[in-house]
Amino acid sequence: MTTTYAALLRGINVGGAKKVPMADLRTLMEGLGHDGVRTYLQSGQAVFASDHGDEESLAAELAGAIEKRFGFAVDVIVRDHAYLKTIADACPFPAAELEATQLHVTYFSAPVDAERFAEIDQAAYLPEEFRLGDRALYLYAPNGLGRSKLAEHLSKPRLNKGVIATSRNWNTVVKLVEMTAPSGG
Questions:
Q1: 151-158: which pairs have CB atoms within 8 A and are 24 or more residues apart?
Q2: Stated pTM of the model
Q3: Architecture of 87-179 per CATH?
Q4: 77, 8 in Cβ contact below 8 A?
Q5: Which residue of 2, 52, 68, 133 is surrounded by the most CB atoms within 10 Å?
C-alpha cells in the first residue's frame, strides 16, 4: 500500500549552511524510489509517496542519502498524513485566532517524557506557553519564535537529548497536512 509522507529536514539552508537545493532533493528522493516528490519552501520539507518502509526506516534512508550526496549529516523526521492531521487537529491553542508566526509545532523523532520538561517554570515565561502532544510540542510565542525566551530554553540539548527535534510554524504545519492528504492538497 502506498502512503504519503512528509520529510522534515532539520537545519538545512539556514544562514548559508548545509545547502540542499530543493530540485536536487527531489531528484535524490525520486532516486530512492519515491513517487510524487514535492518540496515546500527552501527550509526542508518534502512530500512523497512510498510503498516500502516505515517512518523510521524512510527517515534513516533519506538522511543517509543526503549525507552521501551532499557530504554532511542532516537530521530527518518522516511522518504520514494521519499523524500530521492528528497533530494539527489536537492543537491546544486557538490556532484560527492566532497569527502563524505565533504558533509552532516541534516534531520529535520519538516520544518524550513530560518529566523532561517538568522543571520549566512556565509562569516565568508568560504569555508564552507550551503543551506536549504525541511526539510533538506546541509552542505559543506571541512575539514570534526569534524573540521567544521559552523557545530558547526548550531548545537546550539536555531537554532533547537523544531525540531529533525540528520546529515548524503553523502555516507549514497546515500546508503539510494539505500536501499529504489523499487528494494531494
A1: 151/104, 153/120, 153/125, 154/106, 154/117, 154/120, 154/130
A2: 0.93
A3: 2-Layer Sandwich (3.30)
A4: yes
A5: 133
CATH 3.30.70.1280, the chain: domain bounds? 3-83
- Model confidence band, residue 11 (pLDDT cutoffs 50, 70, 90): confident
Given a contact cutoff of 8 angstroms between Cβ atoms, the answer to whether 34 and 81 are in contact is: no
CATH class of 3-83: alpha beta
Angle between helices 170-180 and 81-89 (to 10 degrees): 140
- The residue to which cell 512528509 is assigned: 6
- Residue 170, pLDDT > 90, answer yes
Query: If pLDDT is split at 50, 70 and 90, which confidence band does 61 have?
Result: very high
114-139 pLDDT, tens per residue?
998 998 999 999 999 999 999 999 99
Which three cell numbers, joined as nine digits, stand for 131? Answer: 503543551
Distances from the Cα of 14 to the Cα of 17, 50, 123, 149, 155, angstroms = 6, 28, 32, 20, 17
Identify residue 93 by its one-letter amino acid code.
Answer: F
* Predicted confidence (pLDDT) per residue in 24-48, tens digit: 999 999 999 999 999 998 778 999 9
Q: Rounded distance, CA 86 to CA 133, Å?
A: 10
Q: Report residue 31 as a C-alpha cell.
A: 532516486
